[in-house]
Every structure is written in C-alpha cells, then in structure tokens.
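Hi support team,

I submitted a single chain yesterday and got back a structure, but I'm not sure I'm reading the token output correctly. Could someone confirm the output below corresponds to the sequence I sent? I've pasted both exactly as they appear in my results page.

Thanks,
R.
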Amino acid sequence: MTIKPLRFASVLLRRTFFTDRCLSLAAAISFYAILSFVPFLLLAASLLSHLFSSSDQASQDIIAFVTANLPLSTSAAIELISATVKGKTIFGIVGVIGLLWGSLSIFMELEYDMNRIWRTVELRSSWSAYVVPLLCVPVMILFLLISLALTGLISLAGKGEIPVLHLPLLELPFVGTAISFVVPIIVSTMLFAWIYYLLPSKWNHFKSAFYGALLASILWEISKLVFDYYVSHVSRFLTIYGSFTSIAIMFLWVYCSAFVVLLGAEFGALWHDTITRGKIAKASQ
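Hi R., thanks for writing in. Yes, this is the structure output for that exact sequence:
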C-alpha cells in the first residue's frame, strides 16, 4: 500500500497528541524515572564507598561531585555521603530495592503505554504482567553496559593514530562527529526496538518496531543537541529556579526523552497499521 506522507503525518500527530495523549503518558514515565534517580545515587555511593572507604581523598572527591551536581546544601551533601560510608551496606540495600521498584514501575508503565499505542486487546495474565517488566530490568542494565563498553572503545580508538597520517582517528574531519553520533543511534535503536517489540502483550511486527525505534533514536540524538543549546544559550532556568536549576533541567530532559520514546512507538504502530494491514482509515480511532 502506498503511503501518503501528509495523511500519515496528520494521523500520527492526531494519535500522538489527542487519541493516546502521549504528553500525559510521558509525564507518568518521567515520574517513575525520577523516583529511580535517588536510589541509583545511593547505590552508586555505596559501591564507591566499598571501593574507596579507606581513602579520605576518594571520599572528598565523592562529596565534591555530589555538591556540584545536586541541588543540596554542602552540609546536607556531606551528611549524606558520610552516612553512606558508615552504613554502606544499608544504603546499598536501600538503593537496590529502590532501583528495582522504580525500574519495575517504569516498565509496567511502558507496558501499559505500548499496549495502548499498538492497540493490543489481549493483555497478559496478572503474574506475567509483573514478571515481564521485572525481566526487563537486567536487559536494560545489559544495554547500559554495552553502551559504556562502546564509549570506552571509542575513547581508545580516539587515542590511536592513523599510520600514514599520524593523526588520532577522531581528529579526522567529520569522523569524530560521525562516530559519536552514529554509535549512540545504533545502541538506542536496539533498545527502543526491543521495547516496542517485546513489551506489548502481543508481539508486534519487528520491521515496524525497528522503523519506529530508528526514528526515535535519531530524534533523541537531535533533541540532545537542541536541548543542550537551549539550556546553554536561550533558557532562563537559573533566574526562575535558582538553586533548583539542575533538578528542573533534569526533569525537563527526562520528560522530553520519554515523549520521544512514545513518539517512535506511535510511528511504528501507525506504520504497522498502514503497511501490514492497510488500516490508515482506522488508525486514528
């Protein structure tokens, strides 16, 4: 079936903003993602304290990092890190439990959103509705490890020299920019395609999920550049929020990221309806 771009775009916008209300769905995802942020910090601080508790300099570095990146007073940050070092096992347990709960909540919300976007009628049983999102947590960790590994490989490649030109690889014209842009797109496309294909109760057409994931990945990378420029040159966050500027920026970025993920799912679902089943007329319902 031939796709009419204008018709496709109008239905996509109508489904995204009105039928499925993706702006509200993105807010729900952002809420659980932000709740997972503090347990993640506690878990990270606990792991670092296990590694560096015998080093005063390492503790000072951790305190400096927290005070520079969190909207807390210096005394509160020092108290948090000191308590973590003294009770690192307790904070590690709390961090793991909080991170698991937050991650489970995120994927349960994503499962609901994917079922809604992909028009899934048959839902999972009560037990599998919890098991599948729980299994998504280690998969997400695996993707994060892959991303970190690729980042490390890019860094190592940048230190190597081209034999003939005697230049670092990443200093060649456009090479560094291309690698730093393409590699994250590949990783995020894999992640988004997995979310779009496996999270709905009924597995969808993988090609449609892949197209939606590719669009979401490209939009995500572009949005990072636009968001960075906006925060650096245009916005007045510091004037409005004062000491809470960092957390306000983080909230906004998480919300924008969640919306991009949902927009990619909408594109993939509409593509699936249009190409596979030819339901462009019913896609906006």
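A quick pointer for reading it: The chain is about 80% helix and 0% strand. Let us know if anything else looks off.

Best,
Support desk
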